[in-house]
Amino acid sequence: MSGNESRAEAVFQITNRKPASVSKPKSLKKTWATDVFTLERMEEALSKKAYKAIKNAVETGAAIDPATADVVAAAMKDWAMSKGANYFSHIFYPMTGASAEKHDGFIISDASGKAITEFTGSLLIKGEPDGSSFPNGSIRVTNAARGYTAWDPTSPAYIMHTDNGATLCIPCIFISWSGESLDKKVPLLRSNAAMNEAAQKVLKLMGEDDVATLNSSCGAEQEYFLVDANFANLRPDLVLAGRTLFGAPAAKGQEFDDHYFGAIPPRVQVYMQDVEDQLYRLGIPAKTRHNEVAPGQFEIAPYYEAANVAADHQQLLMTVLKNTAKKHGFVCLMHEKPFAGINGSGKHVNWSVGNSTQGNLLDPGKTPHENLNFLLFCGAVIRGVHLYGPLLRAVIASAGNDHRLGANEAPPAILSVYLGSQIEGVFDQIKKGKLDNADEGGIMDMGLSQILPFAKDAGDRNRTSPFAFTGNRFEFRAVGSDQSVTGPLIAMNTMLADSLNWIADELAKALKKNKDTTKAVITVLKKLMKEHEAAVFGGDGYSAEWHKEAKKRGLKNLPTTADALPYLKDKAIKALFESTGVLSPVELESRFEVYAEQYILSIAVEAKLVANMARTTIYPAATRYLSDLALAAASATEMGVDLDDTVAKNVGKNINGMMKAVAKLEKAMAKDNFKTEEAHMKFCAKDIRALMDEVRSFADALEADVADDMWPLPTYQEMLFIK
Ligand code: ADP
Ligand code: MG
To answer: What are phi and psi of 94, to 5 degrees?
Structure first.
């Protein structure tokens, strides 16, 4: 293999590469959150009064007055400059799912021309990036082009280092001049507030008199691929689209399951430790690391945090993963399906809600049938998944994730909820109007004296469910690896808020009729289950029977983004966001437009690349090889040898087939007379994608025939197995 000169050079570079220089491990105590302007740091630097104000804001979302902002800004600047930062940047999260930043210096000059530094409360509180080039859906068409960033004190500021400098980064919201959210953070904060308000009502009705502010929590498991940069940079598709648009399968794939949880390759482990060291400095609690199912695929999962902070940290984690990969000679691919034929990458979003007085409300404890608060919150989630399944599907819709969902390696594109046998058992009783007992997990005792017995979980796991209860949280498993976790968190918080509001009304009614709280809860949940049990499913989500059964139950199967995104315009979903105050109709509409545009653009880029690579890379290689074969046949005939021409004929056929498909694809790409965004998306999902696949099938067949030393693109075998 790797006879082609550039590929051979890449292999040579990899074989002879010097390990990246990394520092020896330091104790967690020395590194933890050293680059974060933490509450403790503020306590040291601020007056008691200012500190109390900021702490209150962080813990309850209360407002901060301008004088406090001035004091915080001054302390923040001093701290940042002591870490070598001369610049600060408002960090915000536009609707595209990316992170955005605009840097400003602390520097100003005084009347005498001397350079001094300044950072006031107003600079901390508000920025005005030239946001007009961020996608904004319809908002900017109807309103002024101005955009503001505004400080979010509930997510801590931090320092990002480069080799020769540092920048103070301040997490912010991003809004239009007219006050509409142009970002992902505002609706997340609003969804949290809506959930808190609804939860307070329910808990008060349940007789709780001390109820602290509720917050949602998120722990995200991030899957990614590492490919050596020497290979990746030889592939225009990886560079521009983040996935391979061509590539015949390697002789060996993931069939041996020998990579999953296998020993982490040393070069990768050095990389991971480098990543973790930076994450610790940034106060991100990286906790789990392991090999994933596909060769070249890995996972990192930080410990869970408050959803707003976790979401910002997740964005930062993706940035650190990508940037650090460069230093180690890798390219980190977060695309949902970088390689055909082997597993793609997802992001499991673990989510729960709780507070400091009632704890985690999705924790059933040892006796779930006695934990009425848990049952109400869990019931609220069931109702939410049933009513707003299409919303959950829409918020994870993207060009990349279309390759995963429903492809028998990832959860199906049908949204259902898995409860596990224990909790399902309790809800089965509720349906009959009872609440007697719950299965117990029991003790795992192997009868081996060396192995200590331990308490078993009360239910098994179900890897085929898109939305699973996993002991003390729900795990949304269908999220794409490249996506922001914010969309899913907003959807989950908002549907929970809506369900809790419904429960509060029903519970108030039931309690009026019957003072017995347990009986009232059973009444409410029985009604809830009667209407919404269709969303509960514990079987094999990959099976054909489930697809049939789901249809019978009225659950929607939305295989592509083109099918799912239009649900953002659905009446019920509009009403959900409007009634909870999370997104106004204009804000929701603009999200549909931005996501639809992103989808269409991503597929357009891929289609252009397919045509371009087929024409300028694969066609020349294949015809050169065909000409070699023709020459060889001619010389052989001269010598009186009759060469078999099967391969030559095959190559010729596939070249022609490929170029015909390219012509069809190019014609389809030129089409631009779409009546609606929906029609355009459908065309991308069905026609453009199918034509791209057609070109690919011929190209991959050529890869199997063309002489290895003439094949211009690094192969799957090289990219997945050479480290
Ligand atoms: P698995 O691969 O078994 O699903 P991991 O341990 O890799 O689990 O990741 C589970 C994630 O769920 C971690 O980020 C963990 O911190 C998070 N998590 C645990 N408990 C909660 C909770 N109550 N709320 C939200 N996330 C949680
Ligand atoms: Mg998981």
So the answer is: -65, 170
What percent of the chain has pLDDT above 70?
A: 97
Which of helix, strand or coil describes residue 682? helix
The gap from C-alpha 653 to its chain's centroid, in whole angstroms, comes to: 42
Whole-number Å distance, alpha carbon 192 to ligand 1 midpoint, is 20
Assessment of whether the complete model's pTM goes beyond 0.90: yes
The atom of ligand 1 lying closest to the CA of 351 is: 25
Which of these, 486, 15, 10, 21, lies nearest to 238 by C-alpha position? Answer: 10
Structural domains in the chain, CATH included, are 32-92+97-133+140-179 (no CATH), 189-211+356-582 (no CATH), 215-345 (3.30.590.10), 599-721 (1.20.120.1560)
Residues 6+ positions from 39 with CB-CB distance below 8 Å: 54, 55, 58, 156
**Rounded to the nearest whole angstrom, what is the distance from the C-alpha of residue 335 to the centroid of ligand 2?**
18
* Pocket perturbation via mutation, ligand 1, pick of 473, 474, 493 by most ligand atoms within 8 A of CB: 473
What's residue 352's pLDDT? 98
Distance 469 CA to ligand 1 centre (A): 11
Ligand 1 atom nearest to 472, measured from its CA: 23
Residue 654 pLDDT? 98
Q: What digits encode the pLDDT tens for the residues 324-372?
A: 999 999 999 999 999 999 999 999 999 999 999 999 999 999 899 899 9
**Banded pLDDT at 1 (limits 50, 70, 90):** very low
pLDDT of residue 25: 80
Q: What percent of the chain shows pLDDT beyond 90?
A: 79
Return mean pLDDT, the chain: 93
| Inter-CA distances, 424 with 379, 382, 405, 415, 500, Å | 11, 11, 25, 17, 20
Q: Compute, in angstroms, the gap from residue 275 CA to the centroid of ligand 2.
A: 20
**CB distance 39 to 58 below 8 Å:** yes
Res 360: pLDDT: 98
- Residue 412 to residue 566: CA distance in whole angstroms: 19
Answer yes or no: is pLDDT of 408 > 70: no
Q: What is the 3-state composition of the chain as percent helix, strand, coil, each rounded to the nearest 5?
A: 50, 15, 35
First to last CA, the chain: 15
Looking at all shown ligands, the one closest to residue 351's CA atom is 1
pLDDT per position as a tens digit, 416-450:
999 999 999 999 999 999 888 888 877 777 777 77
What's the mean pLDDT in 635-648?
Answer: 94
Return the best residue to mutate from 287, 298, 304 for the ligand 1 pocket (most ligand atoms within 8 A of CB): 304
